């Protein structure tokens, strides 16, 4: 589990976010939105992006959207921005329940499928915040370094 994730009443990021076209409803669409944002930023600033760092950002976007679909009642908002040397991915869902990491084995010692998404997000992101939304639900924001 992400031992240090923060929960806040309102987001603290001061950078304006742009909403990504129609809200992605599948992880593949979220990955394409991240690729597009990083590509646009790289082209505008003439700075290349490390392929492994981009791969990490794509995996985080995929895991956050998958978790919102499977455990959060669906995606209610998705935003991606490139801030400095990192990509910020925010996914909102309908559930107020915070994300949790599941034990890899059940009480009988059998391996459980799944349960790896939240630890992956926490491992790859430099900052992860879980924010309660005033209208209900939550927003999870993860900043993944691009270098």
Descriptive terms for the model:
147 residues; alpha+beta; 5 strands
Measure the end-to-end span. Answer: 24 Å
Principal-axes shape call:
globular
Query: How are the strands ordered across the major sheet?
Result: 1-4-5-3-2
Strands, total number: 5
Strand content: 15-25%
Helix content: 25-40%
The radius of gyration is 15 Å
Overall average pLDDT:
85
**Uncertain residue ranges:** 4-20
> What is the structural class?
alpha+beta
Note the total helix count. 3
Largest sheet: 5 strands, mixed
SSE sequence, one letter per element: EHHEEHEE
Summarize this structure briefly.
With 147 residues, this protein is of the alpha+beta class.
Mind explaining what this structure looks like?
This protein has 147 residues and is an alpha+beta fold. It has helices at 27-45, 51-71, 117-124, and strands at 6-8, 75-83, 86-93, 127-132, 138-145. The chain has 3 helices and 5 strands. Strands 1-4-5-3-2 form a 5-stranded mixed sheet, covered by helices on one side. Helix 1 (27-45) packs antiparallel against helix 2 and helix 2 runs antiparallel to helix 3 (117-124). The two termini are 24 Å apart. The model is unreliable at 4-20 (pLDDT under 50).
